[in-house]
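Lecture 7 notes: from sequence to structure.

We start with a single chain of 226 residues. Read the sequence below before looking at the structure.
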Amino acid sequence: MSKPILLCFLFLLALPIYSTDLIAHPGGLDKNGGHLNRKTGEYHCHKPNCVEKGNSPKPTQQPKISSKRYNRKDWPHWIDKDNDCQNTRAEILIRYSLEPVKFKRNKDCNVSWGKWIGPYTGKEFTKASDLDIDHIVPLAHAHKTGAANWTRKQKRDFANDPENLLAVDDNTNQEKGAKGPARWKPPLKSYWCEYALKWRHVKAKYRLSISVPEERSLEVMERTCQ
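Now the structure, written as tokens:
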């Protein structure tokens, strides 16, 4: 090997080796310890305690529209999956209460009191009757974006999936209705990041489509993650 070629080879060996993962993700990490690649819609964790949010479907101009009409009765909820007398609503109220909950009567079935902070507004609530259980990705929205032809069991599983449920005040839940991010965002801007990541996670988990306006609105909310 000639001396110039040898020197060139040694120079290349001396160059620092960078992680391709770091090169592919310029910029800082979000509060979760991960990074969203907005070009591909993929979310990558970079810290040990980071929660993987799933990879988002690529945005489409227009989701396929099914001839089947949406009927809320096709999505059974709330169910008592483990037969402990607490249905999905009760379990979500228990999960998000900041204090031990109180139940109606003697049976630990129906929650009546607790302490909740509404994620969409930041307001505090103590009466369970003031709260609704919100589907982050609404049932009617899921129907329109890929779930219309699901079996009844698939719809039941989606309707009772804790990863798609939050305890929120009833007025805000009614205001949201079945709207997607392009038409509704949480009034509390500090929750935008988490809401957008949860939305993407559910859409990816159930392979539901994301429209272009929906994608743009998610990106707006995700800018608050930094």
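The beta strands are 34-37, 42-45, 59-60, 102-103, 111-117, 124-127, 131-135, 165-169, 210-211. Keep this in mind for problem set 3.
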